[in-house]
Amino acid sequence: MMRVVAPGLVSDRTDWAPLASVLGGLVVAEAGVALVAGAGSGVGWARLLDLFVVTNAAIGLSLALAGWLIAHYRPRNAVGWTLLAGGCCWAFTASGIAVLAWAGGPELEGSWWRLLATVTNAAWPWGLTVFLPLAIALFPDGRLPSRRWRPLLPVLLFGGAWLVATAVLDPLGGLTAEVGVRGYPDTEGLPRPDWVAGVASVAVLLGWLGALAALVQRYRCGSEAVKRQLLWLLLAVVVVFTAFLTGAVLDLQSLLVGVLPILLIPAGIVVGVLRHDLLDVRLLVARSLLVLSLTVVVAAGYLGLTAALQSTLRGP
Known about the structure:
The chain is mainly α. The chain has eleven helices and two strands; from the N terminus they run ββααααααααααα. It is globular.
């Protein structure tokens, strides 16, 4: 059933819509647990950043909010549900690490704590390698461009499963080992060939390249409305890349340029699905590309000038 809920926004809510609120609430609860347990652990803000508690919680919340908005108003669009699943994975890792640090870290004993550590180590790779690239490949209508793109699904699943195995079987104990709790199985001291991590990297890269290629194909064959939707996501990617480039050149170790820009990607997906006609996105993309070009020129000049000055000061 279709109904208008706001100017320019049409809802096709079904009986599945309340499930979106349940999943969204779950991610909020996970992030809340991460915040409370992290604050109570006494490890400090800097340490929580090093443990990726803050970043995982922020990414999880952003994906969940974007997923909830889409799944609530477009429950038949798989993009929303995929983003919600990714948010659950990232936020669970944040809450798991925070809880283990708060509960006592190295002093913890018992199978339940080790089981929590195992799930914590295994959760975030699914968000990175499966759910987020899948959401991008399904954007904006929740379907792959055509049946020829179905092989992308096993590629994403293989990359996710391999990275999960790499994280769980890490001889160093994975992320939770940083707070003194190793998950199952205990692989401490076991050798891990370099090719294992190499296969994981290649599988993840192929999955992401496939998702981006699906976007390119959709843009080439899409209608004007579809192209406008895709441009919102492109706008977010351009801003993120500009922020990352600026941070790398100026060596800025800050959430403002290192993590927070990533949150624009789910925002671009939401606008592209629900309100792609909000503004003249072509003008925004053009100006963003101009800013990016100027940033690249300034960065190149800065690096060149720095290298020249260093060479001069060192002398012959």
